[in-house]
Amino acid sequence: MRLLVSPMNLEEAMAALDGGADIIDVKNPREGSLGANFPWAIRSVVELVAGRVPVSATIGDLPFKPGTASLAALGAAVSGADYIKAGLLGVRQPEEAIELLRPIVRSVKEHDSRRKVVAAAYSDFRRAGSLPPVELPQIAAECGADVVMVDTAIKDGRSTLEFMTVEELKLFVRSAHDLGLEAALAGNLGMRDLEAIGSISPDILGVRGAVCGGDRSTRIRAELVRALKDAL
After folding, report:
1. Side-chain half-sphere of 108: how many Cα atoms within 13 Å?
2. Is residue 23 within 8 Å of residue 42, measured between CB atoms?
3. Sorting pLDDT into bands at 50, 70 and 90, what band is 213?
4. Residue percentage of the chain with pLDDT more than 90
5. Which of 13, 32, 93, 195 would you label with 218, given CA atoms 20 to 30 Å apart?
6. 85: annotated active-site residue
7. The pairing of beta strand 23-26 with beta strand 55-61
């Protein structure tokens, strides 16, 4: 299981690296769960990391605007991100999800077929009014994405495990694997959840708050990254 840590600036990216993160995921928490950072912020982290680990970049909790989303995805890829992560917040039906995700994948893969697209749904989909995560693996496979993820849309201290059961999340991971995809899990998860996370067995665990001391609005601390990495 790889540990993905989500810094918002160079100082935090260095702390994540020093702590042993496997993937550095550039985001902007001020703009939401998967808030997009600026191209120059992504480039600066890519330069800092210098190929030691992959760099991921979020492109937003996206509305149903396929053209806008595909341009954002290309921007992240051109800025050097290895993984381009898209939150499918503004879709309710599988047909809309396909219409949004397919041009994201195309814009990234036409630029560089080695780049990976991460499609994210939300464990709190009922209150967010978005697509149920159980439907995402089939959609992502059909569109040519590489990774599917479950996160929380609303960051109010509640975790993915409060909105989906361990069995539902196991099914999500199995479905992804059956379709040749990797599966990632995030959403206010941390040390207290390691037993459940271990039983679900995602390929990637994504965190921010857990390595900021519980408050995602503060800064990432290298010692907390290391402690979580060691526990995994």
Report:
1. 31
2. no
3. confident
4. 95
5. 195
6. yes
7. parallel
State the Cα–Cα distance between residues 216 and 177, nearest whole angstrom.
Answer: 30
Residue 116 designated active-site: no
Q: Determine the Cα–Cα distance for residues 162 and 187; give it in Å rounded to an integer.
A: 10
> Are 36 and 27 spatial neighbours (Cβ–Cβ below 8 Å)?
yes
Using the Cα atoms of residue 183, residue 75, residue 152 and residue 14 in order, give the sign of their dihedral: positive
Query: Which member of 27, 109, 116, 229 is catalytic?
Result: 27
For CA atoms 155, 158, 85, 121, the dihedral sign is negative
Tally of CA atoms within 13 A in the half-sphere of 151 that contains its CB: 30
Q: Which one of 85, 116, 155, 229 is the catalytic residue?
A: 85
Question: Three-state DSSP class for 202?
Answer: coil
With a CB cutoff of 8 Å and minimum separation 6, the contacts of 37 are 8, 26, 27, 28, 57, 58
End-to-end CA distance of the chain: 7
Average pLDDT over residues 198-226: 92
C-alpha span between 133 and 150 (Å, rounded)? 7
User: Tokens 């271990």 correspond to what residue?
Assistant: 198
